[in-house]
Amino acid sequence: MSTLPKFLFVGCIGLVFDIVIFSFLTQVWQAEVTLARCCAFLCTATVTWVGNRRITFSRASKSNPLRQWKKFIIGAAFSALPNFVVFESVIWLYAEQVYVAFLLGVMVGALSNYLINSKWVFD
User: Fold this and answer.
1) Total count of domains within the chain
2) What are the residue boundaries of the GtrA/DPMS transmembrane domain, all occurrences included (predicted)?
3) Model-level pTM?
4) What range defines the domain where residue 24 resides?
């Protein structure tokens, strides 16, 4: 099976995880939206690294997992840029559309993240 469907599967799991953390932080802890988004993103990046390492790119080298995780986090941080720009832009334009902003940001970031993961992190 191609890596893209596997990547999207892991991403869907990550998205659920991301939404749960984001919702918990904003609804239960009453955290500020941008802070909650950053915290949820960081937690989710680690969860998706594990999923992509075991499922999507299972044939990639398993040596030096800490180095690979660092590359993954760097790639995720790079992909966070378009994610957060879209998120903040939609919030700025339509303040009440937090979850629309969230999902649009995730979709833009996912494309960038797939390219980085397939070409650099799990090479």
Assistant:
1) 1
2) 6-122
3) 0.76
4) 3-121
